[in-house]
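Researcher: I'm preparing a figure for a lab meeting and need a structural model of a single chain. I don't have an experimental structure, so a prediction will have to do for now. The sequence is pasted below. Please return the structure as tokens so I can convert it later.
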Amino acid sequence: MATCCKLIKDPSDKWFIYIDWSEWITGIIGDIGGTVDITNSQWFLDTGLVEEAGTPTVDDNYKTFLYGSGGTAGQTYSVMNRITYDPSALTPSDFTEDRTITIKIQEK
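Model: Understood. Here is the structure written out token by token.
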């Protein structure tokens, strides 16, 4: 899923979104060498949206995940994913990078 996505969801939907960080990480590896590991993933949701229980964090293919729900019909919300990453070729470690997805809630 591209990070520029605008999703349309019904207020009663539970939804699943993910961000594929692999292309971005491949670019870092190409620039500095070594390896890059995502060490943490946090989601920040606008008020009115809910992060559902059981949301996994990161898979082995550099994808971060969110299970969500909520929102009010006619409203648009932002969901931001912040990863912490550790490039082996650089010191210090624990850099961060953010991506935001826009979700519009409307009756289907």
